[in-house]
Specification:
single chain; 118 residues; mainly alpha; two-stranded antiparallel ribbon; 5 helices; 2 strands; 62% helix
Length: 118
């Protein structure tokens, strides 16, 4: 399957597919004309990658799931390692949200002080 077909089958862009390949998450062979040729099973792997990214994991996080990317990840029982990775990522996101909320509150307070002087 060529990159455009894989993109259409998975909802990923060709650019994203090349990025996943560069990151070592998917592989392709090359046709005689240099076009990428993906195995039909790659579509399952790409859908799983996209699922993991959609819940907030990074490509580095996804790399830890390589052994299970070819199965049905959405209904499979998560591994202790997978749960640990997800919990760690959640903690990072919570810390970022807290930092952004504090910055927003400081900015709102500064704007409130300016409005009070007008």
């Amino acid at each position: 399957m060529r990159i455009g077909e894989l993109a259409k089958a998975t909802g990923a862009t060709p650019r994203a597919l090349r990025h996943y390949e560069q990151a070592g998450l998917i592989t392709s062979s090359r046709e005689h004309n240099g076009y990428r040729d993906y195995d039909e099973r790659t579509a399952v792997r790409v859908r799983n990658i996209r699922h993991l990214l959609s819940v907030g994991l990074t490509l580095d996080d996804v790399r830890c799931f390589l052994p299970c990317l070819d199965g049905d990840m959405t209904s499979a029982r998560p591994s202790p390692e997978g749960l640990g990775i997800a919990r760690d990522r959640l903690a990072v996101l919570d810390a970022r949200i807290a930092a952004q909320t504090e910055a927003r509150d400081r900015l709102a307070a500064a704007l409130g002080n300016l409005s009070a002087r007008e």
